[in-house]
Amino acid sequence: MRTCQLEKITIHYEIVGDGIPILALHGWMPDHELMTSCLEPFFQRNSGYKRIYPDLPGCGLTKGEPWINRSDDFLEIMLQFIDKVIGKTSFILIGESYGGYLARGILLKKFSQILGLGTICSVGEIIQSKRNTPEFNAVLRDEVYYHSLDPSQQKELDGFLIVQIKEIVDRFAKEIAPGLKRADEEFLANIQDTGNYNFTFDVDEKLPIYSGPSLFLLGRQDNIVGFQDHFKLLSKFPRASYVVLDAAGHNLQQEQEKLLHAHLREWLDRIDYAITGEVTSQSIV
């Protein structure tokens, strides 16, 4: 991995490919591998983009420094990271879960630099007690496989994985679980427990209308962040596709990978048209 030395913290990150920069932000507790596993299978077949995958503070190899006390600090760190790694170049922004909330803060601060905003299962309502979330419901389960697991393994699936088949469980264990184990849980829990998980300002209220091509991909059965709280955002994003996928929870990128790729391609087509103004047989504008 590469390192980016900022004034008070070292950010570990990866860069893959060349072309238009895409900054990809993971959620709370996993690390950049969640995003590489989510996006690289798509970008291996769609060239022309330079993907930038940082580990947020307290996640992966980036240390949770004691002076970092709230989400405002996460935002300032990412703004400094952008200045150093991307500079003044326009870029595409995509965030998963908490990374989607953080992305809206970046959009506010780097408004004219953002070519397009995409989110996957992003946090609409940051205050957890106020979220509109459905009850957990495993909508697709291989009963033979499920009952071959011991009760502790079943408990790990229940409450999070909406699609409970061996392929998805194995991918979760390979692509996401290791990042969760690397997280500095004490550091991250302290930010949440002290009520500093949200910005000190209402980012969605402050955001001006953003007319860049946008994409909100959400899981109909996402019992972690829900999907309905995102309706309040739509007036700020007149060029947004708001897509709620059935048989998808907070692990949408694995549970509905084919649809994820299809919507990413359509979103990037819209961004390409916004940049070039050229209409091709593949353009969706």
UniProtKB/TrEMBL annotation:
GO molecular function, one term: 2-succinyl-6-hydroxy-2,4-cyclohexadiene-1-carboxylate synthase activity
UniProtKB keywords: Lyase
EC number: 4.2.99.20
Gene3D superfamilies named among the record's database cross-references: alpha/beta hydrolase
AB hydrolase-1 domain boundaries: 22-256
Superkingdom of the source species: Archaea
Entry-linked PANTHER family: HYDROLASE, PUTATIVE (AFU_ORTHOLOGUE AFUA_4G13070)-RELATED, MONOACYLGLYCEROL LIPASE
Name of the protein in question: 2-succinyl-6-hydroxy-2, 4-cyclohexadiene-1-carboxylate synthase
Species of provenance: Candidatus Lokiarchaeum ossiferum
